Each structure stands twice: as C-alpha cells, then as structure tokens.
Amino acid sequence: MLRVEQLSGGYGQRDIVSDLTFSIEKGTFFGVLGPNGSGKTTLHKLLAGLIPPRTGNVEINEVSMSAMNAKDRARKMAVLPQQHLASFSYTVREVVELGRYSHQRGLFSFQSAEDEKVVNQAMNDTGVRAFADMSIDRLSGGEQQRVFLARALAQQPDILLLDEPTNHLDVSYQLQLLDTLKKWNETKQLTVLAIIHDLNLASMYCDELLLLSKGKIAAKGRPAHVLKEAKLQAVYGADIQQKYHPTVPSPLLTLSPSAEETNSDSLLSRLTIRQDSDALRIDAPSYFKTFSSALIGAGFGWANCFYNFQIAKEYDRSEAEEHVYKQTADDGIDSSDLVGMITATLENRSMKRLQVENVDVFILTTADPSSAVDASTGWATKPGQQRSGTINTFIFIEGTLSELAFAQAIVTATEAKSKAFQDGEVVAASSQSIATGTPMDGLAIAASQQEPNHIYADTSTPLGRLIGKGVYETLSEALKYSCSRNHS
User: Fold this and answer.
1) In a domain, 260, yes or no
2) Cα–Cα dist 323/313, whole Å
3) What pTM did the predictor assign?
4) Where would a tag sit more exposed on the chain, N or C end, judged by fewer CB atoms within 10 A?
5) Using one digit for the tens of pLDDT, what is the confidence trace for 275-291?
C-alpha cells in the first residue's frame, strides 16, 4: 500500500502542492487529474523522490521512503517521467535490461535466464520487441516512450509511477499501453499511479481518481464520483459535460465550444419539405440533435436531412438499409447527416406546427396501419405473418433538450400514438384487439439545441403537452386518410 500523509513541497521556498493526504491500496489503478499548474508533476516528483518534501511523509507498505536506499526503492517503485533524453546509443534491449539492475547484486552482474525472460516479456507487452537491436536514438518519441515503459515494467515493481504515459502515442498505442498496464495491474497486483491529462482515458482505466486544483485535493474516489460536471467545470474552467460510455460502465466527458451568436429566426420556419413518388425529404437549415428509431441514424446523433422512403408492402427487410443508402447517395446526401426511415405509404400524411408561450414544435406523421399489431399480444404472432405497414413520426423542436427530455418526448409521443389508435378503433388482425402500432414504426425527435432550454418533456410540461397533442392529431388525421382510401 502507498500512503501519503500531509505532503507539501515544491521548488525553493514555494509550495506547489500542500497538505496532501491519501492512500492507495495494492493492485489499484490510480489516476491523478488536474489542469496545467495544479501540481500533478510536482506530486509525481515528490513521490519518485526527485525532490524532497517540505513537510509530510510517503510510505510503501508502512515503510517510509526516506528510510530506503536507492536499490530498495527501485525494487518497490518504478518511475516513468514525462520526458526522456535519449541522446545515447544503447539498443532498445540494453535500455530495457537496465530495469533489472535493482534485482542484481553487482553492477556488472550476468543476466540470468529469469532476467532475459522478464526483459522479453516487457518488450512484448509494450510492442518494442521488433526493434530490440535498434539504437534507441533512432526511434520516434512515441516508440521511445514505450521502450522506457518496458524498462519500468522489467523492474517488476510493486508500484509503477507514471507521468503522462500516453504522451506522444497515437490512439492505437494509447489503448494498447493502457490495456497492458491494466492487465499487469489485475494479474500481477501491480499498483499503478498515473498522471493522465485525458479525462476519458482516466475514466475508462482507473479504479480511483485524485483531482488536483491549485495544489490541493478537489476530489478523490471512483471515476463516477470525481468526474461530475459541476466539479470539473469549476476546476478546469471549461464547459465539460458528463454522459456515459456506450460500451463500458464509465463516465464519458465531452467538451463544448463557446456558444456562437445564433439567428433569432426560428429554425422550424426554415424547414423545407419535398416529396416525390418514392420519398419525402425534410431539410433543416442547420444540424439538429436527434434521437430516433430510424433505419439510418438510430440512437443519438446529429442530422440536417430527414428522409421517409416508400418501399413495397412486401419486401426483404435485410435489403431495406441498402436501398436507403443507395437512394440517398443518388441524391447526393451524406448518410452521416441523415435520419432515414422506411414507410409503406407517403399518401396518408399529416403535419402540424404548434406554438404556445416559448414552445415551438413541428410534427409530421405518415401512416399505413394495414399490418397493425397489439404489442401486448405480439408475442403470439408467427414470424413472417406481418406486412410492412408503418407509422412514422418526425418531431422537430425549437430548443435545447436534456437527455431526460429526449427520453420523455419518446414516451409522450408513444402514449399519444396509442391513444390515436384507440380512438380510431384500429384493430390488430392477429388478435382482433385494439392495435398499438405496426411492426416497423419509426419515431425521431430532432431538437435545434438553441434557446430555450427544455429539461423535461413529460405531459405535465408545455413541451410534453404540445408533443402529445401534435402526435395525436397528425396520426388521427393520417389514419382517417388511410381509412377513406381503403374504402374508396
């Protein structure tokens, strides 16, 4: 265990860090964060013994580092500083072999078979084995960084102390390096203490974080506790927002540039709608933040083009996505800017713009309920029994929505859709009960992310009430068009 007790120090008579107290359990991946000038590198030098503390103490396994000689300290702790001067002609292997010095009894001791095994493993783990016989001064800065990490790993320390270990490395090697450290951390119970600038890398790899601000501890604990928006914004003085990583249970931090002057005209007033025989297209004057169940652009994203493609009622679903990509490419549309849905009809459509107070929404719905289903009995429907009928709804909102508001908008719209089906007495053929939708329904929420702000979109809010009203009315009208055409 590493224990830091009331540690203060710096340069000359000036303390850069003051009164730091924290401990790190064995086998912990511990990250140190903070803006430039917060004291991260000074803390690294104090822990490494490169500068003496003015007050306080550092202990490893309850033994003060001040009581250890250099060789004892090297067996306990390996240090990787931020920068290296590689102005000598040692080969990569020779540099890594220096990491075995603390395990030898004499300065010129013979390398044992165990030493060679450890050196080779360290070079393999850091990806430098391929140029083991090259002179280190011929390598790039990133390659040299990996060589010096291999030397540190070859020490087989209890604690590995790193200052910006991913500095000079491209994205692939950053991940490879941190994966290696995490593996050693878990399999060898190696304690890793790393100063990291990248908040997201720290979030993904570290078990605990220490956030420094002006030489003092601003926060310490699990990443989810330390990486809070308000805390980070106060320490870094930047607009940092916390989300969650899509594949690992870690906070994901995003940065926002300074807000620019925006056009006072409503963006909804400048939506353009065009329709031909097989597609309905809505173009926005700028990018809208979207959350959708669309075939193209599903989930969260940004789009300035919205398509509703008409396909045959009987079709191969696996071919639908390829059809949409081809159609948009033919129209000169970049699919990364697109929310694209498929529909069985473009004829049965309705659109409305609704405004009240500072809430402004535009809703467009197309409806073909010919393969309507009751979601509560859909499990009993045999695969392949349904056709492609669709209810597609596009909801455009003037304003900035929180993630909660996006989710609530989906719920509100879905509730309004079910009510329209109920009042329209749309029956599911398979169950003869009131339908709730069709197998391929699509819904897209698109927000301008400008003023005003909407934190909520449930039915108790003006925004939620307008969404509910608009979805209900446009779908009810589109269903009437469908009904009248079916009876004509």
Assistant:
1) no
2) 14
3) 0.78
4) C
5) 987 889 999 999 999 99
